[in-house]
Write a structure and sequence with these properties.
Blueprint lengths: L1 H7 L6 H12 L1 H6 L2 H8 L3 H10 L5 H14 L14 H22 L2 H13 L3 E4 L3 H13 L6 E4 L2 H9 L6 E5 L6 H12 L3 E6 L4 H4 L3 E4 L10 H23 L1 H25 L2
Parallel strand pairs: 1-2, 1-3, 3-4, 4-5
Amino acid sequence: MLIDSLRANLGSLSKSEKKVAVTILANPQLTLSENIATLARNSQVSEPTVIRFCRALGYEGWQDFKMKLAQSLALAMTGADQSPDQDDLAEELIGKICGRSINTLLELRNHLKPEAIQKALEVLTLAKKIEFYGQGTSGIVAIDAQHKFFRSGVPTVAYSDPHIHSIAATLLQPGDAVVAISQRGGNAALLRSVQLARKSGADIIVLGPSGTPLAELATVLVPIDLSFNIDPYTPISARLAHLVVIDILAVGLALKRGPEFRKKMQKAQKALQKFDMQFDSFFR
């Protein structure tokens, strides 16, 4: 939710802007009932500072931020910000894990930048080859991306081994595209491979947090800013957010390739269904 995003971005705010953030975090519900003058006074800053704070987080101004805060608090599921406990019953685990995942996706929907998705799709549409790089949990997302994107008709591959994607990066050419996936944006091996890919002339699409070393290497940055300071289970929701962005890009690319490509996809799907039916008959 927006509150988690606000906590995650505290370090990027100025000293005065951080005062506004701390005041809001202390009582988000109270913030909704305040006007800009009251918030500025409670934060011991000027009204222009409140506006700069809102814009630093990507909002047009105070009213835009306040509206998004109200939406976030209204949609957030009660108890979903609680950490799983060792003594939790199955019912409690279902509520906490599902609730956290739902809140993560709602936050993603509210903050994912359409212009960044559009630019990424433009790069992918023109790409002669698409390579997905990721490590650890992000490597799993990269493999899922390959499974979705290879149907686009563009040569597609995923690498999660740092030695392999560093070698692959040196073999890229202008017109190729790399999609680098990261939850933190600071993995040294991934950074090295992306640097090599840029040197080879490839376009770099980064799915990861803004303000990180990886983000600075991006041709197109699709920022996925999530909080990692809750508990060790947070990456479960973070991985889900990355998977959804991959789905958005895969569907967007398929649509951009037009109705003829859709017919090819349907033909491939029918062939797969026919194979499944033949395979099932083998066990009858």
